[in-house]
Amino acid sequence: MTDGERHDDWTNWSGLLTARPAARLAPGDIGALGDAIRTAPGPLRAVGTSHSFTPLVQNDGALVSLDRFAGLIDHDPAAMTARVGAGTKLGELARAMHAVGQAFPNMGDIDRQAFGGALATATHGSGAALGAYHTGVEALTLVDGAGKVRDFSVTKNADDLLAVCPGLGAFGMVTEVTIRNVAPYRLHRRRTSLPIRALIDDFPARMSAHRSAEFFYIPFSRMALFITSDLTDSASTPRPPDEDDAAVVLLGRVQRFTGWLPPLRRALLKRAVASAAREDYVADWLAVYPSQRNVRFNEMEYHLPIEEAPKALAEVIERLETRFPGIYFPIEVRTVAADEAWLSPFYRRPSASIAVHHTAGLDHRPYFAAMEEIFRRHGGRPHWGKMHSLTAKELAGLYPRFRDAMAVRRDLDPDNRFVSPYMARLLGVER
Ligand SMILES: Cc1cc2nc3c(=O)[nH]c(=O)nc-3n(C[C@H](O)[C@H](O)[C@H](O)COP(=O)(O)OP(=O)(O)OC[C@H]3O[C@@H](n4cnc5c(N)ncnc54)[C@H](O)[C@@H]3O)c2cc1C
Hints:
431 residues, Uridine Diphospho-n-acetylenolpyruvylglucosamine Reductase, domain 3, Vanillyl-alcohol Oxidase, Chain A, domain 3, 2 domains, 5-stranded antiparallel beta sheet, 14 helices, globular, disordered N terminus, binds flavin-adenine dinucleotide
């Protein structure tokens, strides 16, 4: 079969999901990828870096890595566009683009994911006027379920492009993408601590007063770390060491030490948050966004209509602090601009994203089920790569173009080569 075949076990980043695929392939060119899609044992799932928490990749058929479709292929300085391999890791891509005078307008928390994986799940950063990665896509090439090469672009078939990206690896395997970039920029990054009440009461104003704003609520502390980034022409200053992982370890220790003693826990946390809070530096865009995430967790994130976020967040905190004393991971809150992609959770809706985390290896289900009830009641749409319980029936009600997208999918993958049991439930495909 195609080059790179192996039969290893597979596991996702958090270690929760495993599989023993019948084949693992890493085709080196588009012809070999087409052959693999036609002949490998099905179902086939594209794999990036396995950072998704949902079983999008988990599969007993063939796992197909696009790692060899990597790098900056070319760029157009006048149009400020770049053509890139979909297997490129975000960090490598950012460095290659920076070197030729281009930049992503925004990035998420880490830069380890494959670009194709980030696009497939609507991966995003924070910023009321900043869209998820897929909003920069001008054109893409994928190999469909029949092994045929298909091209999509904003100029030739804009509607189809909106249907296939983000595409969950269900429309085809994306090999290369043309993205619209911006000129490299410098950011003034600040981190302060604020009472959570102030952020909830004044949510829209505080979140939209900066190019990018986000916050982490520290459970049981009534305090949040508020992080903002704004454009600046000032010279770079040293970036303080990334201590996010150490902070999570410390929060876990405080939780174990104080047990179920909320006043003691609150007092200790307040002091820790205040002393850890301040951060103030200037750096190039690509040095500001990514953090280290080495402490493993499972995660649920829902994208809510922005006006619902303050109420939903207050309920999330109340429920966490009355029913889940063991939780110490911060709650992350971000905003994302609306877009037009059919399977984007931000489809025609300025959104606020609320993310809850749970220590990997422990039972996350009661906590996530309790949080999901709140997110759903407030009209949330789940992050495709983060844990949720929805299937096609509920998703069709949340996505006005869901059925249209499925019609395009059927045309590209009539034999359901990309449909694993999980994907069948997610997309409502009879197998
Ligand atoms: C520590 C951590 C931090 C994170 N931070 C953020 C964040 O800040 N913001 C955010 O929105 N999300 C975040 N995520 C979620 C993550 O960005 C998504 O789950 C993303 O899809 C992972 O990319 P990946 O390359 O690992 O893809 P995988 O998990 O390997 O695959 C995800 C999906 O993409 C498909 N796919 C991959 N490559 C291709 C391709 N070339 N063509 C077609 N389909 C393809 C797969 O089939 C699958 O359906 C984070 C996850 C972790 C573990």
